[in-house]
UniProtKB/TrEMBL annotation:
Organism: Imperialibacter roseus
Protein family (similarity comment): Belongs to the Lgt family.
Pathway in which the depicted protein is active: Protein modification; lipoprotein biosynthesis (diacylglyceryl transfer)
Residues involved in a 1,2-diacyl-sn-glycero-3-phospho-(1'-sn-glycerol) binding: 135
A GO molecular function held by the record: phosphatidylglycerol-prolipoprotein diacylglyceryl transferase activity
Topology with respect to the bilayer: Multi-pass membrane protein
Gene label: lgt
NCBIfam families: lgt
Record-given protein name: Phosphatidylglycerol--prolipoprotein diacylglyceryl transferase
Transmembrane segments: 15-33, 53-71, 91-110, 122-142, 175-192, 204-221, 233-255
Amino acid sequence: MHPEFISFELFGKPVTIHFYGLLIALGATLGYFYAAKTAKRELGIESDVIQGLARWVIIAAFVGGKLFYYFESPAYYFGEPANMLKNFRTGFVFYGSLIFAIPTVIWYFRKHKLPFWPMMDLVAVTGCIVHVCGRMGCFFAGCCYGKPTDMPWGITFSDPLSQAKPLNTPLHPTQLYEIFLILSILVVLLMFKRHKRFEGQLFFLYIMMYAVGRSVTEIFRGDIRRGFIIENVLSHSQLISLILISLVGIFYYRFSKKQKPIVKQKP
């Protein structure tokens, strides 16, 4: 795929718009409109509150995603800080964004006295919308690429600007695997949304399903820079996935046992 969407001159200076940034912006826009409309309709929350939430989440996700990316190769980035500016607009770790975003939304919900678990369910669906666009951006940029494969659905990256390695070789389309995973999760969440047993169920399902799926897609990843706890056996993301599955599974079980009737709001 091609990382660059369009290049042009503006006031005599070259300007390049990358697919990655464009698709992230698209995901954030779609996510905001879904969250604002749903929060107003179902929870009576005004759009300006969602705007504020979106701003804080974007900042937290950017910082967390970038820091976790740097921690994958600490000697390279922290040993030579100038390397942090290379490909600054790309190179993010989803779990880093998630881990930074969750405490940010908790703080924001408490500050504005928002209904916590109903909002977390809203965040889960919104997160899927943003995430699937982000993974499409990864596909165009060539990052988060897969191992070489002889499977008929292998994808060959040939653009010299692509981050995929090696070029001109069929690779597992791990970005597309994740897109399929996230879209499947989104469908499940929307199905459960009408019949959920307790507030927070969608959020717990989102975390557990993604963690399980991510553990599987990691097997096909070829970008060794993401780091391993046990070389070629257990990656950083797989370890985080195992921890999340365990912790969230416990919460899901406890919440399901203490479930309270959900009062449906009239449209």
